[in-house]
Amino acid sequence: MADQVMIESSAWTPDFRADLAFQKLTEDMVDRMRAYGREESFPANVVLFTYGERKVDLFVVLEGEVHACLPAGNGEAKVFARQQSLAFLGELNLLTSQGSLVEARTFAESRLLRISRDELQRLMRSEGDIANLIASATVWRRIGIIGEESAGVALLGNNRDPKMTELQRFLIRNNYPHRVVELPISEAPPEQDLFEGSARTSNGRFPAVTVYDGRTLYHPTIAELADELGITELPDPEMVYDVVVVGAGPSGLAAAVYAASEGLCTIVIEGIAPGGQAGTSSKIENYLGFPTGISGQRLASRAQLQALKFGVRFAISRQVVTAEQVDGIHKLTLAGGIPVCSRAVVVASGAQYRKLSVQNYEEYENRGIYYAATSMEGVLCRDKEVIVVGGGNSAGQAAVFLSGIAKHVHYVVRGKSLATTMSQYLISRIESSAHITLYTGSEIVGLEGDAGLEWVTWAQRRTGETTRKRVGSVFVMIGAEPNSGWLYGTVKLDKKGFVITGGAEGFNGTPYATSVPGMFAVGDVRSASVKRVASAVGEGSVVISDVHRYLADHRNSFAAEPNSTLEALRLASAAAE
């Protein structure tokens, strides 16, 4: 059994595939990998890397045995996998800047091939079959780790706390393993020991997140949590990227994959998580190539993995605040004053759902009002009555998904019918479902509740007749507004705030060019775009050819030393202040 990978686990997720997670390298693969690293020998019981360590090297086992371990409480470790000859160490963090979720320790005297992070990126670009095996295996290992109760971080708080909901959604959408400890705030005495003495919290300081080393973050922001866990890779302020993609929805991810695969140094800026609005869809059934449908999050995760394989960097949890151009170089400023400089920009910041004009609306956001219908929200409304608002495909898909979980779905739309706004296959499913009642020409007029949403009233617009029901969850999907506030005063926008591109304006001779040279827009944020996943992916893919032409046409203007360009940007910023 000297060449086998043995796995010890009792809590794999139902979808976990150990055979894919621990695929063995071939002898030929290892021979080719030698050109990227060096052999090292280690005695038994040596820690190669530990929990939370970032940018770890890739280790290939040539001889001996190495154990990948997870924390098991009381300072002990649980063996996750026993890896022997032709196995490689590491999981998804090999492709990101996230801290390691496992600890690797030699069990016996071992001879290993060590490949540095820089050389690993070169290998991933040059050795296609090895890159595919590593990428696939690391994702399956992450799936297995998510299924382990002791993996990741502990999220402490009350599930009716909107901040708790926000943090949990962020971790789920970024595929970061965690466990939730429900502890009503009113029952938590000050400085109560929560986890075998390793984590402490004080009354009124929820939610809190406990990390591997026992430290606890009290009431962290999304950005603070992302930085602590390494979910975000902060941009290098001294670097000029070839292209910055703003937004990691379908169009942004497509642009990133094509840009990086064609040799452009690429970074993606995303405020929450990859996927955009599509990432919150329970299932997309009319996307080409997936006859049984695919969830938005799974589609986004696959696209992000493709981007990571080609070396794309991701700055998650950061919004772009301003944009300017100096001497042909674009400078984007992120929240917190973080600068990002690039030669070209692809605006793929998408759109956000509109809100209902109802009194006390904001009071119930994440406390009964939601903008996504995923498995996370589904848990909150199992066997309960819920409301879905909106006439588009996203709302229709949410209604169908929730009808299989909730006791009943009340579907409220302002229009006279769904025919002009929704795909026919969804209309047919809604009309044939005994668990969905459609209320056309109606709108919500009242929200009530103390700890959270408890009662909802809606009215028939023509007759004024009202209906009041005990409902604790409302899913609002009533159209979109562009995420373009950071572009005001920079590029031309239409009356609704969508970015004007190409067309009659003739910017740069391409449909995706904006009024600013070197800045392109794709997807839902673009004026007159088709609001569909497939078209967004298409636009993101095609726009990179425009980026290449722009970079080639302006090659001479980028010939200046990067330091002088950055200095010019700093001087321009200082003058503006």
Automatic annotation (TrEMBL):
CDD domains: CAP_ED
Pfam families linked to this entry: cNMP_binding, Pyr_redox_2
Keywords for the protein's UniProt record, in alphabetical order: Flavoprotein, Oxidoreductase
Residues in Cyclic nucleotide-binding domain copies: 21-130
EC assignment: 1.8.1.9
InterPro entries: cNMP-bd_dom, cNMP-bd_dom_sf, FAD/NAD-bd_sf, FAD/NAD-binding_dom, Ferredoxin-NADP_redctase_2, RmlC-like_jellyroll
Top-rank lineage group of the source organism: Bacteria
GO molecular function: thioredoxin-disulfide reductase (NADPH) activity
Name assigned to this protein: Cyclic nucleotide-binding protein
Lineage summary: Bacteria, Pseudomonadati, Acidobacteriota, Terriglobia, Terriglobales
